[in-house]
C-alpha cells in the first residue's frame, strides 16, 4: 500500500497518514523498493501446524457423510481409531466449522415411495403445458389442524447463561397442545373461499355437507361458465363412494383435479396454512381458548392479501417444472445406503472359465434407458429404448484427457455415488440405465497367490462348451434355458457434442456391508455368489 500510494503521487506525510504508520517506515519501504531490495513475500504463518491436515479433513468429511447424526464425541472416537496422534473434541469441532459442516435441524419432507415419485412425475408431465392462465381456473382446497399451544422450535430468544430458568425464557407445554381445531378452506386466483371450522375430525358425511354448502356455490359464482376445476387430495373422506357420487352429479358444472399422494408441495394452500399460523402466533395477547383461536383464524383468513394467494396460483408452472427436472430422484428412500448392487432373479453360478473377451474403456455396450433421458425433446411418455453407450464414465464437466479419465472410473470405488463428485451429478439428475450383458469376469485367488478369472452369468440350461486352458479340457453346461441376459445397474452422463459416456461396475456386497457399511468382501460358498437385493426399483424408475 505504501508503494502504491507513493507511486500515485502521495507525499510521505499523506502516505503515512493513509497507511497509519510512521514517516520513517514510509521512507524506508519506498527507498527499498526503488533499490530493488523490497521483500514482497508474506511472512510465514506462526504457531504450531494444525492437528488435522488436509488428508485428515477429507477423512473427517467422509466420517460425517457416513453417519450424519454422529455427535462430536463419536466423530472424535472414529478419527482417533488407528491414528498415531489423537485429537480432542474441541479440535474436531473447530475443524467441522471450518469445513462448513454445521449442526442443522433435519428437513422434514413427506415419505415418498417409488410409486409416489412415479405418479408425481406423471402428474408434472401431464400438466406441463399448462400456463398460469389454466391454473387460474383451479380452486385449491384442503384441511389443516391448529393447536392452541404449540412449541415447534421456530421461536428463538436471546438470554444470558444464568437466565436459563427465567420465566420469560421458558416455553410452557401442555398435553396435546391444549386442544386443537380442524379447519377446511379453499381458494382460487380469483378470490378466497370460506374457512370452515370442523367439529372434531373431517369424515365423509361432514365433507359432503361442506361440498354442498360451500364448494358448489363457490364454483357457480366464481366460474359462471362452468369451466372451473376443483382440486383435492386423496384423503379417505375425499375419496369415499358417497363423495365420488356427488362429484359425478356435478361433472357438468366443474371437474375434479386429482392430486398425487404425499405431495403437499403441489397444493399451494399449504402456504396459506403456514401464513395463518404465523399471523396467529404473532398476536398479542395470544388466544387463551379454542373459541378465541377459531376467531383469530377466521380473522387472519379474511385478511390474507390478494397478491399472496394469487402469486401462489401463478407458481404452479414453476413447481411442476421443478418436479420434472428432479425426475425420479426427488427424495431418496435410503440415503444412508453407501453401495448399490444389482437386482437378480436367480442365484448366479460361478463357472471355471479362462477364455474371455472383456469390455474396457472406450468400448460400447447396449443399455436400456428411458427415452426422455437421452432425447433432445421433453417427451412425456415412458418409452424405453436400447442404445449403445461408451464404457468408462466421464462427467460432462471434465475438461482433461478423456481416455485417461475413463480408465479411472472403469473399476468400482469404495466411495458411494453420492459421496464422489464424479458420480453425484448424474445420480441426482436421475441419469440411470440398465446395462445388458452376457456376464462379467471376476478374479479370485485360488492357490499360491495365483488368480483365476471366473465368468459370472445367469444360469443356463444347455449352452456352449466351457473350456479350461490349463488342462485343455471342456465341460458342457446343463442348465441351458436359452439366452438370459445379465442386467446391471449403471449411471451415465450426456455431452452436448452429443457423446454419451457410461459408468457401470459391479459392487460385491455381503450382509456386513448391507448392514454396517463394512469392507467389500468376495464370498464364495458352493460355487454360488450371494447378492443383496437393494436394487429392485432401479429398472422400474430408469
Automatic annotation (TrEMBL):
<dbReference type="GO" id="GO:0106300">
    <property type="term" value="P:protein-DNA covalent cross-linking repair"/>
</dbReference>
<dbReference type="GO" id="GO:0016829">
    <property type="term" value="F:lyase activity"/>
</dbReference>
<dbReference type="Pfam" id="PF13358">
    <property type="entry name" value="DDE_3"/>
</dbReference>
<dbReference type="GO" id="GO:0005634">
    <property type="term" value="C:nucleus"/>
</dbReference>
<feature type="domain" description="Tc1-like transposase DDE">
    <location>
        <begin position="138"/>
        <end position="282"/>
    </location>
</feature>
<dbReference type="GO" id="GO:0006508">
    <property type="term" value="P:proteolysis"/>
</dbReference>
<keyword id="KW-0378">Hydrolase</keyword>
<dbReference type="GO" id="GO:0003697">
    <property type="term" value="F:single-stranded DNA binding"/>
</dbReference>
<dbReference type="InterPro" id="IPR002492">
    <property type="entry name" value="Transposase_Tc1-like"/>
</dbReference>
<dbReference type="InterPro" id="IPR036397">
    <property type="entry name" value="RNaseH_sf"/>
</dbReference>
<keyword id="KW-0190">Covalent protein-DNA linkage</keyword>
<dbReference type="GO" id="GO:0015074">
    <property type="term" value="P:DNA integration"/>
</dbReference>
<dbReference type="GO" id="GO:0008233">
    <property type="term" value="F:peptidase activity"/>
</dbReference>
<dbReference type="GO" id="GO:0006313">
    <property type="term" value="P:DNA transposition"/>
</dbReference>
<dbReference type="InterPro" id="IPR036590">
    <property type="entry name" value="SRAP-like"/>
</dbReference>
<dbReference type="Pfam" id="PF02586">
    <property type="entry name" value="SRAP"/>
</dbReference>
<dbReference type="InterPro" id="IPR009057">
    <property type="entry name" value="Homeodomain-like_sf"/>
</dbReference>
<dbReference type="InterPro" id="IPR047655">
    <property type="entry name" value="Transpos_IS630-like"/>
</dbReference>
<keyword id="KW-0227">DNA damage</keyword>
<feature type="domain" description="Transposase Tc1-like">
    <location>
        <begin position="58"/>
        <end position="127"/>
    </location>
</feature>
<dbReference type="InterPro" id="IPR003738">
    <property type="entry name" value="SRAP"/>
</dbReference>
<comment type="similarity">
    <text>Belongs to the SOS response-associated peptidase family.</text>
</comment>
<dbReference type="InterPro" id="IPR038717">
    <property type="entry name" value="Tc1-like_DDE_dom"/>
</dbReference>
<dbReference type="Pfam" id="PF01498">
    <property type="entry name" value="HTH_Tnp_Tc3_2"/>
</dbReference>
<keyword id="KW-0456">Lyase</keyword>
<protein>
    <recommendedName>
        <fullName>Abasic site processing protein HMCES</fullName>
    </recommendedName>
</protein>
<keyword id="KW-0238">DNA-binding</keyword>
<keyword id="KW-0645">Protease</keyword>
